[in-house]
Specification:
This protein is of the alpha+beta class. Helix content is 34%, strand content 25%. It contains two helices and four strands. It has helices spanning 11-22, 49-61; strands at residues 4-7, 28-32, 43-47, 67-70. A four-stranded antiparallel β-sheet has the order 2-3-1-4.
Amino acid sequence: MFSTIFLFNSLSELVEAENLFLGEGNTYQIEPVPSHIASECGMCIATKEEDADIMSALLTGQGIEHCVVSKGN
């Protein structure tokens, strides 16, 4: 279901992102970063591929650094 993940440099950035997404109505979940992907934070936000562009634009607009990765890679 969730094929795209957002990676963050810190847990505080992940929390900022979640607070931003809470009021937007996008479907997502916080989960551990898949073992084949390295991350400073250790947790990520997973979402549907079709929501990723909108969510990424929200993060960029708020100056929250992030990286978007397909779970399959």
